[in-house]
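Before going further, it is useful to explain how the protein records used in this thesis are read. An example of such a record is reproduced below.

***
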Amino acid sequence: MAAQINPSILSADFARLADEARAVEGADWLHVDVMDNHFVPNLTLGVPVVESLARATETPLDCHLMIEAPDRWAPQYVEAGASSVTFHVEAAAAPVRLAREIRAKGARASMALRPATPVEPYEDLLPELDMLLIMTVEPGFGGQAFLDIMLPKIRRTRELIGKHGLDLWLQVDGGVSASTIERCAEAGADVFVAGSAVYGADDPAEAVRALRARADAATAGASWGCDH
């Protein structure tokens, strides 16, 4: 699979979200950060905005729920128009049941891990997922510096995916830019969330293309990429 770039609207102009979504229509997904000021110390947007975005763009929505009680709220984001919904395992009461419910409603089910959360305890859950998100910053705010110490975790996760022969996307989110995306791809990531690296550029669409090219080149030269 070619690298996928998901621009994060957390770095977009919230007063012009429809225009900002159209500015990156060459992207694979539009990443929507939902924060509740409880699970993370920030408050962003919710179901009504996702409904509006789904009507304003043909780019599929990748909703990242940084919220408490995702078991209750995640299905509503599928109904609002999200094509992929990510919940944090640290907040989910029943992650397997939730992943199955998201899938049953017609969306891709994804699970996120905070930087300090190891992947190994969740090895048996991986077949229930369509994507796993490794946070490469602490969730809650955009514009943070990439945490290099997450690279070994990305590699270990890629090894687990290979071990079980899973068709599981591996997403990274946080500090992804032209200077970090190649390291993430070499380690095993294939889906990349980029906020300021896209929306802070003079030409967001060109920034998406440039990031994808860097990731594809790094994947082609990576040992895991040969069999991907």
Observations:
- The longest strand covers residues 30-35.
